[in-house]
Amino acid sequence: MNISQDKVVEIDYVLKVDGEVVDRSEENDPLTYLHGHNNIIPGLEKALEGHAAGDHLNVTVSPEEGYGERDDENVQMLPKADFDDDVEIGASYFAQSDDGSVNPFTVMSVEGDDVKVDFNPPLAGKTLNFDVTVKTVRDATEEELAHGHAHGEDMHDDDEDFDDE
């Protein structure tokens, strides 16, 4: 079976940026995703299209097809009073927007009564190099399609938030 729209795919991967490993799947715990539902970055999803279990590939993903280009307007100053007493440089926090969405950001520095933060994804502007092995490919269940993501062995078994009403 080949990877295509609405297939559940398991992959083992190593992600390198500038030759340094920045992420990888855990041994015996592949990344599982629902293909064609924006569950992984677009460049990797496009590269996996048509592949089958057992395929091994090296994929280079440009910033445009990964986490986007860095945007200097996403670096902002926030009042230090909005933080707990211990603001940690390099730590990630979350801010809620007026529309209710939650946006992660990273603390860059503390400057007097202000905190300089970066709302860019940490890998924005970076070329991503993936070493990927396709482990399995299967049809998605109706429940997975309805939820828009793959379910692992134990996902949603007792989770009332996801029961169909």
Walk me through this protein's architecture.
- This protein is mainly beta.
- It folds into 2 domains: 88 residues, Chitinase A, domain 3; 47 residues, Thrombin, subunit H (Beta Barrel).
- The chain has 2 helices and 9 strands.
- Strands 1, 2, 3, 4 and 9 form a 5-stranded antiparallel β-sheet that branches. The chain has a 4-stranded antiparallel β-sheet with strand order 5-8-7-6, with no helix packed on it.
- Strand 6 and strand 7 form a beta hairpin.
- It is elongated.
- It starts with 6 loop residues before the first strand and ends in an 18-residue tail after the last helix.
- The C terminus is likely disordered.
Which tags fit this structure?
Chitinase A, domain 3; 2 domains; 165 residues; 4-stranded antiparallel sheet; 9 strands; 5-stranded antiparallel sheet; Thrombin, subunit H; mainly beta
Brief digest:
With 165 residues, the chain is mostly beta strands.
Major beta sheet, specifics? 5 strands, antiparallel
Overall tally of domains: 2
CATH class of the largest domain: Alpha Beta
Q: What percent strand? A: 35-45%
In CATH, the topology of the largest domain is named Chitinase A, domain 3
For the record, the CATH architecture of the largest domain stands as: Roll
> For the CA atoms, what is the radius of gyration?
19 Å
Q: How are helices and strands ordered from N to C?
A: EEEHEEEEEEH
Rounded to the nearest angstrom, the distance between the terminal CA atoms is 33 Å
Counted beta strands: 9
The computed structural class is: mainly beta
What overall geometry do the principal axes of the alpha carbons give? elongated
Tally the helices. 2
The helix content is under 10%
Contiguous low-pLDDT stretches (5 residues minimum) are 156-165
Mean pLDDT: 91
